[in-house]
Amino acid sequence: GSDSSNKRHVGPPLDTVLQSLGRIQNSKERAKVLFEWLIAPVQPDDFFRCIWEKKPALIRRHNLKYYDGFFSTSEFDRILREDNVQFGVNLDVTSYSNGVRETHNPPGRALPLVVWDYYKNGCSLRLLNPQSFSITVWNTLSVLQELFTSMVGANMYLTPPGTQGFAPHYDDIEAFVVQLEGKKRWRVYSPRNSLEMLPQFSSVNFNDGDLGEPILETILEAGDLLYFPRGFIHQGDCLPDEHSLHITVSSFQRNSWVDLLDKLLPAALQIAADDDVEFRKGLPLDYLDYMGVQNTASFNPRRENFIRKVQELMGKLAEYAPVDAAVDQKAKAFLHDCLPPVLTPAEVDCSVYGAPARWENGDVKECIIQLEKDTPIRFLRGGIARLCSNGEACLLYYTTENSRVYHQEAPKSIEIEAEHVEALEYLLHCYPQYVTVESLPCEDMDVKLAVATMLFEKGLLTTKERLTPLTSSRANY
Amino acid sequence: GSDSSNKRHVGPPLDTVLQSLGRIQNSKERAKVLFEWLIAPVQPDDFFRCIWEKKPALIRRHNLKYYDGFFSTSEFDRILREDNVQFGVNLDVTSYSNGVRETHNPPGRALPLVVWDYYKNGCSLRLLNPQSFSITVWNTLSVLQELFTSMVGANMYLTPPGTQGFAPHYDDIEAFVVQLEGKKRWRVYSPRNSLEMLPQFSSVNFNDGDLGEPILETILEAGDLLYFPRGFIHQGDCLPDEHSLHITVSSFQRNSWVDLLDKLLPAALQIAADDDVEFRKGLPLDYLDYMGVQNTASFNPRRENFIRKVQELMGKLAEYAPVDAAVDQKAKAFLHDCLPPVLTPAEVDCSVYGAPARWENGDVKECIIQLEKDTPIRFLRGGIARLCSNGEACLLYYTTENSRVYHQEAPKSIEIEAEHVEALEYLLHCYPQYVTVESLPCEDMDVKLAVATMLFEKGLLTTKERLTPLTSSRANY
Amino acid sequence: GSDSSNKRHVGPPLDTVLQSLGRIQNSKERAKVLFEWLIAPVQPDDFFRCIWEKKPALIRRHNLKYYDGFFSTSEFDRILREDNVQFGVNLDVTSYSNGVRETHNPPGRALPLVVWDYYKNGCSLRLLNPQSFSITVWNTLSVLQELFTSMVGANMYLTPPGTQGFAPHYDDIEAFVVQLEGKKRWRVYSPRNSLEMLPQFSSVNFNDGDLGEPILETILEAGDLLYFPRGFIHQGDCLPDEHSLHITVSSFQRNSWVDLLDKLLPAALQIAADDDVEFRKGLPLDYLDYMGVQNTASFNPRRENFIRKVQELMGKLAEYAPVDAAVDQKAKAFLHDCLPPVLTPAEVDCSVYGAPARWENGDVKECIIQLEKDTPIRFLRGGIARLCSNGEACLLYYTTENSRVYHQEAPKSIEIEAEHVEALEYLLHCYPQYVTVESLPCEDMDVKLAVATMLFEKGLLTTKERLTPLTSSRANY
Amino acid sequence: GSDSSNKRHVGPPLDTVLQSLGRIQNSKERAKVLFEWLIAPVQPDDFFRCIWEKKPALIRRHNLKYYDGFFSTSEFDRILREDNVQFGVNLDVTSYSNGVRETHNPPGRALPLVVWDYYKNGCSLRLLNPQSFSITVWNTLSVLQELFTSMVGANMYLTPPGTQGFAPHYDDIEAFVVQLEGKKRWRVYSPRNSLEMLPQFSSVNFNDGDLGEPILETILEAGDLLYFPRGFIHQGDCLPDEHSLHITVSSFQRNSWVDLLDKLLPAALQIAADDDVEFRKGLPLDYLDYMGVQNTASFNPRRENFIRKVQELMGKLAEYAPVDAAVDQKAKAFLHDCLPPVLTPAEVDCSVYGAPARWENGDVKECIIQLEKDTPIRFLRGGIARLCSNGEACLLYYTTENSRVYHQEAPKSIEIEAEHVEALEYLLHCYPQYVTVESLPCEDMDVKLAVATMLFEKGLLTTKERLTPLTSSRANY
């Protein structure tokens, strides 16, 4: 995965990229374009086919400014000054020297004077979830999450010259190391055995004796990118005369087949048991005589019959597996994990967020926004809402009221009345196309307007054009 | 399953049967003999092949005294007088008339005067778990549980003449209605559809409109037995001029394949995920676009691929299924559910329970019982103990310290040292044969004596002959 | 408190004493007579005036058989054999030698063979709450609790010759050491300082260095009694050639003024705050400037004002103290702590427990017991029930359905309807006099009969004469 | 308390007042000056002597602009637009018409379009805790809390013309209604009886039938203030042609003597019980015979003795009352309730918040701030920290890391080493005087510097002059 070319790779700055995304109608498309920029000149298709989950990749750009505007130590300094950054909650002070990994967090708020003093004394600084403090990081991750359909997170690492902040270890996420300032020497090692390939959980801290030879050793410079899959052990240290700042963008934590099956299997078993009396038949009267750990060495032929029967039933389970319902459970959790979208000016204008209703000169002005039967509408973005059934009711889960701070808000959903469900499915499938209110598959015009207005006022829809307010009020409550 | 013969069936009284069981070496064999008596003249093999879990069976004996000694209203009267029977906890006062099912439990202790007054006013009395109060019921159920390897429970029902105490319903257990006194008219109905065959859970109370025609209608008399599988709706009412007393012996609650799979599947998935990287690979980036309830109508070919992949992984699961470990989880729960054994005089004599150690004339006498290398030993009964692994340690679960009251005691187990495990397996498999201490597969004689003594003192072993006490004390503690 | 006389003290055996109690009408009187026997020839009045809570007392009787029938090692041996005695729950195996106090409890049931083996190896045996296993101990304690109006408990201690089972310590209860068999040397020490006089909580284990000279050193022999108040350090050890068995009867744990005030003060404060606006007035704006630990050295005159104001309000509290309600909280807790009564044959005969209602020859016989307007009734015993208010409702708490095992049952009470309250107060105050149903202060005869019947059926009343059953049934339910 | 003068009262705008506070050295003094402005031309001393907790007061200013800059409907509109205001959490939509009080909160975020639509339809809007959204409100309340030494809160109420949003009721706080825009008619009623004077808890909603005649009826105009104590019933409604906006500033919730006694009494009792054996003596043997609700009518002379004894002990309690420790419990709770301070530019400059340490040109600049022995220091503000003992350790509680959102952060404290305690007491008492590091009462200069540096870096101290950074780093960690 190493790129040995010496060609300088040039691209637009992130601000420009983010602005230009606004011109792309489909939010999923926006995610692809932004990811393309992140890993350019590697092509996303190539990346996902040859590299993703398989091996590390180094993208060297010979362009120190490629990631300018993403994040910087100056912004970190501003955050310390202006925001309530707490040691141990948002910021970790760490060191790794002579094989000893230490954490130095004092209690309470992390003020610049104290933080920078640690830094000057050789400690590394890890800012957790910089998206809570930086709008650009928030915007970037929230766009990318539509590509990964799995939470996209980030941590910032600032390392003083000549030091290392962390012991070698592997993580449980796919990691994109975005080098923003200075340089860092990285060493990446293959998973030590097949059990540690694409692991479900992160490793402990290793020491050098646990490691073999790195499969990749390089000095990452500002503007470069290093990717490695979960399970690949890695360590990074600074050269004697230069600090390093990078953000690791991560995704695919607990997002593998086993995580889906974990939700699927109990549901499949319950359906099978409800449906197929074979599952409800009693166990053999004598099974404890030949089954169980104390009988594993027994040659009783009934063991084989018993095991065969179990396998037969397990074989049948697949027929009953409610795959879509299990996917919805994963989807619900993902929508709760999501960052809320950072709206473009156009999105604001054509949604409830830009409605002109306001207080002016002692009264409310322009508070009547009326969707009409021929108003073209669509969901605000592709990934902000999803229709799931919880057995009884049909619920629309959505991300727009999530917090920038992970899980600070409870999962958000609204219950959808039966007569509105089809309209919602229609709107979800038509995205990114606009459709008129009239075209919604509902019984009559009143219902069409009601469902569209409800979604619009909830902030989930945009109109194609900015709506013009009326002058009289709606009916009494 | 109905027996229309008019022949009187004669058998030994229960007391005699229980006593004679003591002469049978193998406790599993005892269980079969007792069950044979319970359903005589039907043969157990026939019963389990043709009737069990399939259809009701009526065993008519024309012998009012067949079940004499099992339980009686007089014993119930004695229990009310002598034991702390609590309304709502141990005794329910119920009525079902004009389609209305009511419970009349006052708070507090159920004293005869009040209980009998309810009875005289037409209420039915249900004594829950009479095994907590009657030694014969306890003994009977504790023997039978070795046949069913599933908890065997019981309830007593006393119904005044001309009344009905319960609405038609079905249960989640296999039911043996043992008619002890008087008569009762029973109507049994087939499960209403395949979903209600061998159901996992009991039904609500039905009313007549929910039912079709009974497949069995009969007047059960003292000495008769009526069996029906879970899922068969039933109701019983008394004739105008005769009360009815019966005990329903039950088993196989939550003891079907689904209950085993419920424990097996999560374990199988975890093993598969640990072992096979296919399970740990990430989900497709775009799966939320075509999977989930909102996409069930979609014709995206990726849906099929996704579902096929899920099924393929589910298919692989069977290979990883730790069937024995899952059986052990069921076994542990069963051993906790078990009644403790009612020991025969011979069992007492040859176990720690009959050890002559005692206080006499101001001092302890005969407190040294020494197993010797040639002492023949075996487990007290076949079903009282079981060796299970809990991942780390090996534990011997046992029933002898359980309570007659359901789950009043926590599950009982002792951790078995690694060097003792093989000896325990040997002892468990040799049952009902006696083996000498010497023959235990342990490193040396000291260990053999230690493990045998530990089990003997714990009350889990019997010797073939009563041991003769020594005269000097064991070493200091 | 030591009795140096050499006169042999003779008294009736406990069985005779307990039987003769039945002839005493007032249960409180019974308690006094039994206590008189326990401490004879010391007079109860003298005891409570001069010794109780003040100093140890030794009652030497030169009569080894004085306490015969209370408890014995043989009965303990029988209990081990017949009852489910659990190590650590009901029985402790202890030793104290070379200044080291150890507990040797294995897990599980305590079977005689193992228990006696510990004993032979020099371990002491402490049976907790022998009242759960011995009817005589139960009977004795349940009678005495009416004297102490505080829970009366007991532990049994069996000590091998030449050993000591416990380190020196003091307890939080008044202790009556009843020597039953053998001999024990006791050393009792005064509280070490005023803080340890009548302490709220038991001490840690001391060693000899913590102790001064004993104020009492004696060899207690069977038939003797040793009393010492809480806070008096004590230790006992056996002579080389004789074992010791004693029961310590205890009372007055958490039964002092502080325990009452603990319930009283929050209630008093709430009433004062509701009633007197002075308590609800705001704190001074500036009180944090001169009050609080950081200002204790300050000479601000406002401190004095503030403290004076607090003291003034505290002084007012006494006026609002709901003493009776707080006493009732203590009383409720005591009634929950109480052992249920062991009924005399006469008590059984004239109460619901002896009602002749029974099953006979296939039907219920004599189930109609009717209180008449001239039936003389009274409470079964003086201390078995108490009327308390819980703010809203009036509740009758009672002890008759308590368990012999401490707090195995929840507190028992019945809510009393307003129109029945006066009748209950009347019945409670009339005890031990019998009164007719007619004399109850209720609106009409129906209510009088209803309240009397309810209490009778609940087992709380006795009639003066055994009631004769009627022949027809009561009205339908 | 009504002011009938027609004189226009002029004062400086709030912004100017707040700025000028920065020139006052003592933060307690600042609080007084700000409060003076709030209630001008009434004098604070007069107010607290004659009005506070006693009666309503109307301050009419004939100056619509008096409170300009405090808050406005325009700012509320901005908050809806920019902040995450949630219905039911931060904003309530209410109405009261025809005697019916309703709440109309939908779920989720409150967006302007929807909020203003409710308003146009006659609903009132209550913004809870506007200090979480408005810096000026935050600043104002955080200054005032030093005067009240009790949490100062606020709610905003916006009412459409011709409507009323709330039913008549009384609150459990002292209320300052600050009329900001429009007009509102207020009716205030005396507490209905002495039990409702200065009540501990708010009332239910009343209807007109519950009320008598108002003692104050007025039309409050912008620039006016209305004060009423807790317990005074009040209702306000808008005139037909004008909306109303006011903020109610509140304090003294649960800040009365009873709240202090609630913490004091259990502590006093425990100390008394530890110290005085009279409290630990046993209750009389027979107290249940004459005490308790069932004996209240009894004339037993022992009742009087018992009650007298209780009162005597309660009387003694005052001697043991740990008033300062109880005050500290209240103080801790108050410090947790406090808003963090809004720092003045000068406070920033001379504290760690203005330390020049920063990232610049790839490295940390000016990160060494060194307190010297002659550096004058003091606490940042008077009320931001307090030294309390928790029995074992000495803790400094502080407010500077609290959140603007009520109790979003846990209580903040640092444990103070024994050798630092005296220095802290000295610093706390010297406020607002500056003292040199050297003057701190510590063992040696190193300790003095350590404690001062610790407090400075924690953000709790200011220096008199801005500190000049050094150029080299502190010693290694």
Walk me through this protein's architecture.
The structure is a homotetramer of 477-residue chains. Chain A has 477 residues and is an alpha+beta fold. Chain A is built from 14 helices and 18 strands. Chain A has helices spanning 14-21, 27-39, 44-51, 73-82, 112-120, 135-148, 257-275, 277-280, 287-290, 301-320, 323-337, 345-349, 418-430, 445-457, and strands at residues 57-59, 91-97, 100-103, 124-128, 153-159, 174-189, 216-221, 225-228, 233-237, 244-251, 358-360, 363-365, 376-379, 385-389, 394-398, 413-416, 435-436, 461-463. In chain A, strands 1, 2, 3, 4, 5, 6, 7, 8, 9 and 10 form a 10-stranded antiparallel sheet that branches. A 3-stranded antiparallel sheet of chain A has the order 17-13-18. A 3-stranded antiparallel sheet of chain A has the order 14-15-16. In chain A, a hairpin with a 2-residue loop joins strand 2 (91-97) and strand 3 (100-103). The longest helix of chain A has 20 residues, at 301-320. The radius of gyration of chain A is 27 Å and the shape is flat. Chain A starts with 13 loop residues before the first helix and ends in a 14-residue tail after the last strand. Residues 473-477 of chain A have low confidence and may be disordered. Chains in contact: A-B, A-D, B-C, C-D. At the C-D interface, helix 7, helix 8, helix 9, helix 10 and helix 11 of C face helix 7, helix 8, helix 9, helix 10 and helix 11 of D.
